[in-house]
């Protein structure tokens, strides 16, 4: 019994992922990362995480992510991070939260 390698015409061959599928998966990952960074940025390092969340959310929307809601939420949280940073710097010349 001779074994042959599957070719593109045989049903057992797996179709390769198209570049648009890979790009969409990347965009989905960017949307989730934008949301997570925006959420963390409300408490820690908002000067860094806020702009990163804005950039990743914008890129995810531009690349037509399936997770558009998360990308928009990450974008909104990134903007909130930057606004929080501006408020903190304006009120007490600090970029960190201070309790007490």
Automatic annotation (TrEMBL):
Region (Disordered) location: 1-25
RNA-binding recorded as keyword: no
Residues spanning the membrane: 31-59, 71-91
Superkingdom per UniProt: Bacteria
InterPro entries associated with the record: DUF4190, YqfX-like
Source organism of the structure: Streptomyces milbemycinicus
Chain ranges of the DUF4190 domain: 30-88
The name this protein goes by in its record: DUF4190 domain-containing protein
Keyword check for Ribosomal protein: no
């Amino acid at each position: 019994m001779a074994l042959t390698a599957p070719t593109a015409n045989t049903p057992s061959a797996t179709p390769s992922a198209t570049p648009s599928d890979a790009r969409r998966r990347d965009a989905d990952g960017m949307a989730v990362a934008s949301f997570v960074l925006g959420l963390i940025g409300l408490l820690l390092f908002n000067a860094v995480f806020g702009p990163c969340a804005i950039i990743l959310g914008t890129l995810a929307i531009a690349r037509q992510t399936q997770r558009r809601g998360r990308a928009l939420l990450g974008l909104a949280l990134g903007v909130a991070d930057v606004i929080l940073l501006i408020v903190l710097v304006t009120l007490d010349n600090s970029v960190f939260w201070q309790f007490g």
